[in-house]
Amino acid sequence: MKTTEEKMGNNVVRVKLPLTTCVMPFEQVQDVLLIEGNVVIKCKEKARDVVIIPDGVTAIGDNAFNFCKHLTRITIPNSVTSIGNNAFEHCESLLNITIPDSIKIIGDLAFFCCTNLVGIKIPANIVSFGNQIFYRSGLQNVTLSEGVTFIWDRAFYGCSRLTDIKIPSSVTSIGDLAFYHCVNLTDITMPKSVISIGEMAFSWCHRLTNITIPDSVNSIGDLAFDNCDALKTAVVSKKTKIGKDAFPCSTRIIYGD
Questions:
Q1: How far is 43 from 93, CA to CA, in rounded Å?
Q2: Residues 89, 63: contact at Cβ < 8 Å?
Q3: In the 3-class helix/strand/coil scheme, how is 46-99 assigned residue by residue?
Q4: In the Cβ-directed half-sphere of 170, how many Cα atoms lie within 13 Å?
Q5: What is the pLDDT of residues 104-143, one digit of tens each?
Q6: Cα–Cα nearest to 45, from 63, 61, 62
Q7: Is 212 helix (H, G, I), strand (E, B) or coil?
């Protein structure tokens, strides 16, 4: 079996997999990536700066890049369809990552404590989005691709630096605790496609001052905006079912048609 490598500067490593085989024995690949079959099992801590995952890899395994504290950027090929649990946990220098449209599954805590990751685009083809994926990350802005239909439970739980979110017109539901404790979230653009807002979806968003809930929303879950202390007004349709303690007592509810 033959592999090659390319170097860009001193830090970029590209490992090429042979295209004639589907399964590789467990081995050390160029002292950077450990690959079994078509799955990245582990990236050694000595990986620096940029890593380019080779074409042919189909999955990034659980904990594959966790604690690679010097990694700043990673390129994921379109052959990859899943990112495992805690895959990039504590990649504290990670600045940039592009999630290709081929990705369908992102595991729990995949980017936990990526404190310098400030922006990300979520592709439309995701079918499974784990819990607290970006918990304690540096995420400040998120682009949700048109075609995303559901914002998953706990999707952006604890993203304390997130300041604004534009929800695309394809989204119909916002899950439980989706933006829980996004304490710096000040602006939410919610389209008329949304029909339900889950329990505690925006709870503890301390800096949120106003929100307009579109007429399309049929239900707002219990405690959906609990502890949103700065929320002065909320515009809600009379037809919308509002859950228990969905808004703070101090919030003025303005009922539309």
A1: 15
A2: yes
A3: CCCEEEECCCCCCEECCCCCCCCCCEEEEECCCCCCEECCCCCCCCCCCCEECC
A4: 11
A5: 999 999 999 999 999 999 999 998 888 889 998 999 989 9
A6: 63
A7: strand
